[in-house]
Amino acid sequence: MLELLAPTTGLRDAWLRARDDWGPGVHEDGFGIGPDDDVDSPEGFAAWVARLNDQADPARPLQDGRVHATFRWIVEDGEVLGGIALRHELTGAAARLGHIGYGIRPSARGRGIATWALGAMLDEARALGLPRVLLVCRADNSASAKTIERNGGVLESSDRVLRYWIEL
């Protein structure tokens, strides 16, 4: 059964397997990894997980350039299949990236997991009181475009990226 779970050190080995599935040098959308995050050492992984969970708390101050965000891992039977992030506001880079970003590990794609996860994350957006959310994907990413459209996305503009709004 699919679940959206807050990041946890208890899934470190499963997360590392998901990361390895992506391969070296590939960005895993939805995981909130920054260039200074050390996810390979147990200590670094724990610090990264703590930062992700702290970022959801609107009372906590954030580093420059970050916005409050809710991170969830997409998990099935103890395996991390992907990640999804909900940015609480559209300022700075978030205005370009959209409210929600997600990624599914290559071996788990084509099963409707992203569509399910996006639908579940829209419930979290509603709980935050957001009236609508912006989602952005590359114009050549037809799978992501279909995921967004299946969840009610209405195309606002297209160029090298597609910008969709979903009314909540």
UniProtKB/TrEMBL annotation:
Name of one Pfam family that matches: Acetyltransf_3
Residue intervals of the N-acetyltransferase domain: 35-168
CDD domains documented for this protein: NAT_SF
Gene3D superfamilies: 3.40.630.30
Domain of life (superkingdom): Bacteria
PANTHER family named in the record: ACETYLTRANSFERASE
Name of this chain's protein: GNAT family N-acetyltransferase
Lineage: Bacteria, Bacillati, Actinomycetota, Actinomycetes, Pseudonocardiales
